[in-house]
Every structure is written in C-alpha cells, then in structure tokens.
C-alpha cells in the first residue's frame, strides 16, 4: 500500500503536514502492532477521551458498542486472544473534513474476514480514534457461493438415476421436518424472515421459514389498499437482489407483496405457508427446541437447535380497553385489521391515534367520502416526504448517492458507523433544515391545533424510530388534509364509547359508525409469551429501544437495540426484523452467528445484554 507512514517515527512538525492517508495508515499500523503484541494499553492509548467502538460480531460475537477508553479496554481484555485480529489495511483513500479523518478498513480474525470504518480526531497533537466500526463479513472456509465460487448448476457427467435440479428440490422439501430436521426455525415470513432465509440458504444452514398466510407477501397484500412504503427504493433493497432501476421510489403494498413472493422463489428460501406455531419449548439438556406447527391442518413437530422470531419490529397489536366498547353498535378494528376504505363511503369514522397508520387510514377514508375525525392523544412528529428524502436520506440512499459511488452496502456501513450515543447530534441539524424549508407547513399545522414535536431532543424521525418505533408520520398527503380541515381533528384521551359515539375525557362526543384503533403494537417478546411462555418472555425482556430515557424508551442506556439480531438471555432464541433496510443489513450478522454455531465454531459472546424491562 502506498503512503505508508509509521506515526512512531514521525516528528511532531512532520506529522502536521502528513496527508490524511498517511495519518490514517500510521494510526492503523500502530493499532495493528499493539493488537499483535497483545498490548491492550497501547491500543487503548490510540483512542481519544471521547471514543466509541461499535462491533458487529467480529470481536464480540454480539452487536455491541463500548464507549471511552475504559470500555475499549474491557472489550479488548475479554476478546483479543480469541479474536486474534490481524492484517489491518486501508481499503480506500482516507479523507478529511471538518477536522475528522475518515477511512475504510479491512482486517482478518481467527475465523473470518471483516470490514470497518474509522474516524480520527486530533487530541494532544496526534490523531486519536473517535469512532470505530468493525463488522464480520464472512467465515473462512464457509464463504458464500458467489462470483467465482458460484455453483455450476449442472453436472456434466452422465449417470443412471441422475436427478434434476427440480427433483433434488422436491426431495429436500419432502424430507424437511420429517426425515431431516432444520437447524434453524424462523417464525414469520415477512421481509425479515425472507431476507434471513436467503442469507441462511447461501450459507448452507438447514432452515425453514414459517408463515400463517397463504403466500409470501400476503402480509402486505392484506393491509389497507393505500398502504405503500414511505421509505425510498434505494433504502429498501433486499440482500443479493436489488429492485430493478425502473422500480417506483415508493412501492405500493401489492407490488411489494409480489416482489417478496418472487424473491422467495428465486432465492430458494425454504418457506412453509399456512403454517402457524402453536407452541415451542427448549430442552436444556439436548439444547434443542420442540416447535409444534399446524401446517395447513397437519401437526408437524420440528426440532431445531435455534429459534428466530422474525415478526417485524413490533409485537401484538395494542388494542385498548375502553368502557363501552362492548355496547358500541358500529364496527371496531385495530389498524392492522383495517380492510380499506371502500365500505365506509358516507360513514362517520373516528380514528384513535395520529401516527403513520392513523394518517394513512384517514387519508384513504377521506378519498372515499367518509366523514373522518382523527383523535390525537399525544404529540406526533411529522416530516414532509420530499424533505426527508432530500435532506435526511439523500446523501446515502438516493440516485445522487448511487451516482457518487455510494453503494447500498457502503451506505449501510456509513449509517452503522455512527454510534447511537451521538447519532442524535448528526440528526438535529438535518431536522432544523427541514423545519426551515417547510416552515409554512408547520405553521398551518399549528394553526389547526395539531400537536407537533421534533422528538425529545429535536432529533426527529430516525431517532424516534430507533428509540420507540412510533410517534411520527412521513407526510404523503394526509397531514395536508388535517391542515385544510378535510380530516377533522380532536384532542384528548377516550373516556368511553356509547352505542354510536366515542366520548373524550373533556366530554366531546364524536358520532361514529366505525372506530379504528391506530394504537400501535407491543414488544416482540409478547409473541414469546404466547408461543413459549411468560417466563421466557420475561427472561429475554423488552425488545427494541436504546435505553435513551426518552419518551417510551426507558433507561438505562443499552447502546444498541434491545435483543435485536444478537444473543439473548434465553439460549438459542433470537429476534430479527425492523424495516427493509434493517432486515437487509442485520440479516447478514444474524446469519453469520447462526452459521458459526451450526459449524461448531466457538462463539465467545462478549457483553450479553442485561434485562431491565420485561414488558
């Protein structure tokens, strides 16, 4: 590699004139030497007073962020010998902006190959590590069959009894769950389960994805007809197979459903439709799950070693219990069961809630001439879709990002390289720009009495999503209806229902033929309580959130998403999901953890998450 410079041989006046590439290479050389020598203190000394190391499986067999020199010291003391890292290299030219040097790195561990990202800041006259991202990308000897390693797909030798690809596939399908047991059972066949299934297939880990619907993609097809992705296409690619270049920026739900069905078939994901898990128990002696499945009326018992809940980022629907719900003579439904607006033309509809689903449903009902009232119980953050796409996502996930060489993988890594502890500092200026750009819109919202917020610290939508998974709406038109009074707005909590109305605590009575409860979802461990038992649900604790001690995200600080994509307090039980971006990105790290266990590779987990909240 060119421009190599060892910082230990550079005089201070020379160091100040060194290029970003030379300074980054010198830091990396010192770091590599310290790790090879097992000199933890020398390695720690290369980091700044404020510093963060985020590891995705490569050192910790976990998804873990440590903070400050003490955190880095502890991580290295517990992982350095088993990880045995080596061959640290810069993979691209380092850059510098605003006093921060950024560079992309590669390295190897005892069992794998890894990539990462490093930011350096000057401290005491020398570059010090500020943020370090390390991520395992493949296991040695278990590389995926891609590129030069792709399978031939045909045997160019004739033999009697030779089976075709289709016959082999049919044999595999008929044996699964009967004469051959999967190593992994994935509960949930939406985008998360399918993405993980594709990863496991490429890694040759025997598995099956279970879903209760008739076809892959029905999770989307069955929702209200106006539903579409609010994230742009560049943010939503699945692993291995990107959306084509003519795919719409915001895909309608049925188009997504068709894509997921096609993707499942093309990627050879072992997928059981019309399959519901009725119970699951873990045998501590045999280290095996017993998963009872109702597969289209047939009971099948699966005995995997690993069990993954891939039911999205949410648990069961939160259906409130208001006095009078049993006497209300109209229809009542949670937003997840809302069939669409067609049957409600001319009807009076009250929607309880003011976040994404509430706005979408109100907008679609208005389009079908329903008389719609939105009941806002707490403040909501709203951001205009165009502003979010441009200011919030444009540098990473857009056509301009692609044109500037930011691939999907690079964008994912850049996003992952920002520690959650300081991510809000990067988000706040972006939302300040959006507030200025769309000032007239927010003035009109305020004028009609809509209670709006920018998050507890002004950091906007992404931090709300990561902290609590709720409390926001990406405006694709429905908020304008609220501004114009076309969707009526009421405020307050529900006191009770009568035979034909919703009554708020202040006495406001809202006539209703239909009440839609857009009241969100519980934690994913609610599914664990239903399928396994409450004891196990409490053992793993709350799923999602960072412990930021902000609204609906109680402390203490976790540093990572609770329980997602990593080992939990229940052995061999995992959670996978999130939006399409997270399903794509984190499915790799979950799949590698499962593959390592399947192959018997030692996985010394560092920093297993403690449980602070059980609900």
Automatic annotation (TrEMBL):
One of its GO terms (molecular function) is monooxygenase activity. Keywords: Oxidoreductase. It comes from Flexivirga endophytica. Residues 8-21 have a biased composition (Low complexity). The keyword Oxidoreductase applies. Residues 1-21 are annotated as: Disordered. The lineage of its organism: Bacteria, Bacillati, Actinomycetota, Actinomycetes, Micrococcales. It comes from the Bacteria. InterPro entries: Auxin_biosynth/cation_transpt, FAD/NAD-bd_sf, NTF2-like_dom_sf. It holds the Pfam family Pyr_redox_3. This is FAD-dependent oxidoreductase.
């Amino acid at each position: 590699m060119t421009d190599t410079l060892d910082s230990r041989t550079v005089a201070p006046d020379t160091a100040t004139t060194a290029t970003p590439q030379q300074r980054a290479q010198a830091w990396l050389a010192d770091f590599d030497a310290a790790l090879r020598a097992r000199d933890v203190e020398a390695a720690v000394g290369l980091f700044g007073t404020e510093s963060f190391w985020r590891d995705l499986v490569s050192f910790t067999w976990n998804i873990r962020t440590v903070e400050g020199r003490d955190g880095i010291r502890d991580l290295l003391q517990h992982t350095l010998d088993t990880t045995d890292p080596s061959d640290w290299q810069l993979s691209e030219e380092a850059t510098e902006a605003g006093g921060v040097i950024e560079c992309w790195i590669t390295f190897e561990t005892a069992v794998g190959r890894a990539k990462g990202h490093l930011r350096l800041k000057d401290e005491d006259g020398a570059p010090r590590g500020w943020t370090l991202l390390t991520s395992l990308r493949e296991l040695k000897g278990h590389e995926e069959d891609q590129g030069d390693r792709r399978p031939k797909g045909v045997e160019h030798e004739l033999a009697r009894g030779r089976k075709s690809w289709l016959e082999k596939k049919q044999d595999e399908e008929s044996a699964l769950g009967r004469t051959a047991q999967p190593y992994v059972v994935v509960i949930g066949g939406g985008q998360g389960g399918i993405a993980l299934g594709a990863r496991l297939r490429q890694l040759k880990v025997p598995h099956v994805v279970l879903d209760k619907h008739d076809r892959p993609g029905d999770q989307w097809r069955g929702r209200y007809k106006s539903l579409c992705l609010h994230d742009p296409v560049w943010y939503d690619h699945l692993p291995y197979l990107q959306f084509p270049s003519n795919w719409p920026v915001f895909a309608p739900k049925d188009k997504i459903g068709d894509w997921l069905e096609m993707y499942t078939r093309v990627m050879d994901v072992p997928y059981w439709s019309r399959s519901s898990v009725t119970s699951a128990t873990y045998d501590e002696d045999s280290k095996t799950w017993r998963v009872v499945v109702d597969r289209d009326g047939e009971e099948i018992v699966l005995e995997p070693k690993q069990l993954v809940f891939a039911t999205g980022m949410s648990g069961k629907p939160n259906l409130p219990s208001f006095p009078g719900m049993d006497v209300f003579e109209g229809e009542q439904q949670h937003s997840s069961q809302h069939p669409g607006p067609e049957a409600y033309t001319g009807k009076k509809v009250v929607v309880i809630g003011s976040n994404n689903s509430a706005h979408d449903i109100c907008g679609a009902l208005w389009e079908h001439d329903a008389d719609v009232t939105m009941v806002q119980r707490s403040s909501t953050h709203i951001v205009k879709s165009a502003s979010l796409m441009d200011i919030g996502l444009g540098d990473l996930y857009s056509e301009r990002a692609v044109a500037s060489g930011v691939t999907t993988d690079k964008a994912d890594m850049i996003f992952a390289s920002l520690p959650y502890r300081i991510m809000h500092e990067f988000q706040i200026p972006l939302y300040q720009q959006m507030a200025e750009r769309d000032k007239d819109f927010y003035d009109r919202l305020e004028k009609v009495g809509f209670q709006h917020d920018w998050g507890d610290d002004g950091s906007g939508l992404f931090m709300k999503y990561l902290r609590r998974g709720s409390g926001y709406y990406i405006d694709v038109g429905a908020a304008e209806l609220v501004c114009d009074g076309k969707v009526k707005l009421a405020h307050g909590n529900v006191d009770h229902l009568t035979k034909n109305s919703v009554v708020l605590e202040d006495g406001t009575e809202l006539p209703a033929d239909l009440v839609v409860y857009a009241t969100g979802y519980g934690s994913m461990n609610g599914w664990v309580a239903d399928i396994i038992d409450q004891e196990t649900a409490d053992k793993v604790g709350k799923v999602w959130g960072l412990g930021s001690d902000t609204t609906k995200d109680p402390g203490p600080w976790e540093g990572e998403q609770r329980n997602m994509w990593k080992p939990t307090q229940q052995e061999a039980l995992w959670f996978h999901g999130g939006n399409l971006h997270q399903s794509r990105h984190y499915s790799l790290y979950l799949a590698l953890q499962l593959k390592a266990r399947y192959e018997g590779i030692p996985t010394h987990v560092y920093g297993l998450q403690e449980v602070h909240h059980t609900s």
